[in-house]
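Changelog-adjacent note: as of this version, every example in the card shows the full chain rather than a window. The one below runs 395 residues end to end.
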Amino acid sequence: MLDLQTISLISQLKCPNCGTSYSHLTVQTVCQNPDCLSSLYSEYDLPDGLIPEQLLAGRPTNMWRYQEFLPVVDPANIVTLGEGFTPILPLKNLKGFAEENEVFWKDESGNPTGSFKARGISAAVSKAKELGITNIVTPTAGNAGGALAAYCASAGITAHVYMPKLTPNIFKDECRLYGAVLTEVDGNISDCGRIANEKAVANDWFQVSTLKEPYRLEGKKTMGYEIAEQLGWSLPDVILYPTGGGTGLLGIWKAFDEMEGLGWIGSKRPRMVAVQSNSCDGITQAFHQKKTYSEAIDNGFTIANGLRVPKPYADKLILKVLRESNGNAISINDCEMEAALKEIAFREGMLFAPEGAALWQAFKKLKATNWIQTGERVLLLNTGSGYKYLENISI
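Full-length structure tokens:
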């Protein structure tokens, strides 16, 4: 019998688009089929008869409590700073706006380096360590760069970060303090991605760009496991998620499929809502135009730096999840985000990132049109700390 306390159940990597399989024991990026190039998903041998309350009893309250369903084979390679198992908090002073809906926040701001990026980066850096990688590069809108810098410092790996010049200085200072090699780019995250790719090819660095490697998705999916566990192995009716690159949305959906395979939840799924900035709302436009892919859209600066992603690499997969879940997509402008951020801070005592605050405006709009119906249970996922965005906010 497997010792489930120490063994990952990962079996292979697989392309969700064309079905091609790859080994997780060698360095992989995306599907190598030139007609595909999709992101790769980790697959696991999911055994029957695992009772979650027994399996998880007494484990640390971080994301590695789900170690069997994470990609690191040898636990000695796990690089953790205590990420995960963030709280789910009910709406209190603003619950009048919710009327007959039960509304919760899952607040990721307490993660190391102040955002949900810690989850994906912990998984990616841990697997990189296991594969003997010594240099990692990423483009970033801010939070992913800081997380990569921190986890690489812990792992003894060199981090190379490419960040737009318009990013608040706190994100740049964070990277430098952790010892990353930071390059500021006069452009958006797509420009950073182009340069990072060129440098990676020239210098043989491993890229952890969003959904261009398999393992950040695995760390982000632990939000889905936690939502189910923290809500008593039941799921909300609706989940609103701020969508830039979309890794978290895809990861949560993947977690639900895995948990159904384990028998921990049933087949019922939440309706997933992608919330974007109207500065970069290609997913929203494609969804409502019934397209299977998004166009690159960049209308410039937004206070929600993490939402300035002109065209997500996994746009087709994101749109597929939205449609499979009977979900929705909506864009919010900066004025609405800032008003929501201040309203939540003043009424609830929580200083959310603008990306998270956008969900509050999205919730109110979807409720006003009756898309969110009376009695439905709704979860809003705040991805980071508003303290890191104070340069973007008028006080």
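Structural remarks: Residues 117-207 form a domain with the Rossmann fold fold (CATH 3.40.50.1100).
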